Amino acid sequence: MKRIYRKELWQRIGKANEDFRLIEEGDHIAVGISGGKDSAALLYVMTEWQKFSPVSFKITAISLDMGWGSDLSPLKNYCAELTVPYHIEQTNIGPIVFETRQESNPCSLCAKLRRGTLHGIAKKMGCNKIALGHHLDDALETLLLCMSFEGCLKTFKPKTYLDRADITLIRPMIYVEERTIIKLVNRLSLPVIPNPCPENGLTKRQDMKKVISCWEKLSPSLRDNLLSALKNSTIWPH
Question: Which pTM was predicted?
Answer without folding.
Answer: 0.90
